[in-house]
Amino acid sequence: MLAGHDEESSCDPYATIARLLGIDIELGRLACLSFNLLPVPARSACYALIYQQRSIEECQRLEMGNPEELAMYVRSSLKAVSRRIGRSVVLTDSKLNLEAGE
User: Fold this and answer.
1) Which long-range contacts (CB under 8 A, 24 or more apart) does 66-75 make?
2) Domains of the chain
3) 65 near 58, Cβ under 8 Å?
4) CA 67, CA 6: separation in Å to the nearest integer?
5) Residues of 81-100 as b/e, b for ≥16 C-beta within 10 angstroms?
6) Exposed site from 26, 28, 40, 71, fewest CB < 10 Å?
7) 82 and 34 in contact (C-beta within 8 Å)?
């Protein structure tokens, strides 16, 4: 189980993403679809940073990109999700503290 995740969301990736983005579970499904349509480098970085809540430093050590690239991946993914669900999303439970519009 991921740190800070409750039992329900640990079994359901849609619930986890919904909680992390502060949206309803139904919208979490659309958010996952948006993430899955991203290019592989962005998708990998977002999975590590958002879902697994790895640090930027750890992702950098794993050669996922430099801090600026990683932030760009997250911002572009948040923009894609925001477009898909029709409202702006913000990471509500993350060390990154990034918004789609930043």
Assistant:
1) 69/45, 70/45, 71/96, 71/98, 73/38, 73/41, 73/42, 73/45, 73/46, 73/49, 74/45, 74/46, 74/49, 74/50, 74/98, 75/99, 75/100, 75/102
2) 8-85 (1.10.10)
3) no
4) 29
5) bbebbeeebbbeeeebebeb
6) 40
7) no
**Confidence (pTM):** 0.75
Amino acid sitting at position 11: C
How far apart (Å, rounded) are the C-alpha atoms in residues 90 and 13? 17
pLDDT per residue over 16-72, tens digit each? Answer: 989 988 899 999 999 999 999 999 999 999 999 988 989 999 999 999 999 999 999
